Amino acid sequence: MLKDGAWKVGPDEFDLPPLSKRSLGGQGDISASDALIANSFGITQITTIPAGYDNPITYVTAAGGITPSFVHPWMAVSGSLNNVTVTANPRIAAGVEGNRLTLVGAGSTITLPDGLGVALAGSATYVVALSSILCLVYTASNGAARWQETSRTVP
């Protein structure tokens, strides 16, 4: 046993003196730097959605069809104040090979029949209703340029 101050300790428990006599600081020590003011980090309360993150609703008309937007990961779509059946040719404006389009219902329904540039699963009409999701990918292979359905939710 070795003596460490007033205590007797084993050889592997012996505390060596610090390499410096300078204080390492601790609770209650006062910093020599300037005091921080309440908003010194530039933090502000966010009360609105910044424009770069806002995903506006796109209103669809029967004759106008859907013009894809790739600014956001999905398009929030709604019929123009009424339920709409898309009759435009093409129903969704042409894209570029590999474009992915996700339509999320955000209001009045949009009935999207199969055909005219849209290939839906089972050739079945899809109704984009509130909160429903339709995912498509654009393909131009084999001379058949169209939006091909990849998945959907049941409205």
- Give the distance, in angstroms, between the N- and C-terminal Cα atoms: 79 Å
Major β-sheet, in short? 6 strands, mixed
Low-confidence sequence ranges = none
For the largest sheet, list the strands in their spatial order: 3-4-6-10-11-8
Could you write a compact summary of the structure shown?
With 155 residues, the protein is an all-beta fold. The protein is 0% helix and 29% strand.
Report on the structure:
By secondary structure, this protein is mainly beta. It has a domain at 55-152. It is 0% helix and 29% strand. It contains no helices and 11 strands. The protein has a 6-stranded mixed sheet, with no helix packed on it. A 3-stranded mixed sheet has the order 5-7-9, with no helix packed on it. Strand 10 (133-139) and strand 11 form a beta hairpin. The chain is elongated and about 95 Å long. It starts with a strand and ends with a strand.
Name a few traits of the molecule:
single chain; 155 residues; 6-stranded mixed sheet; mainly beta
Write the SSE topology.
Layout: E1 2-4, E2 7-9, E3 57-60, E4 75-79, E5 84-85, E6 100-105, E7 110-112, E8 118-119, E9 126-128, E10 133-139, E11 146-152
Parallel strand pairs: 3-4, 4-6, 5-7, 8-11
Antiparallel strand pairs: 1-2, 6-10, 7-9, 10-11
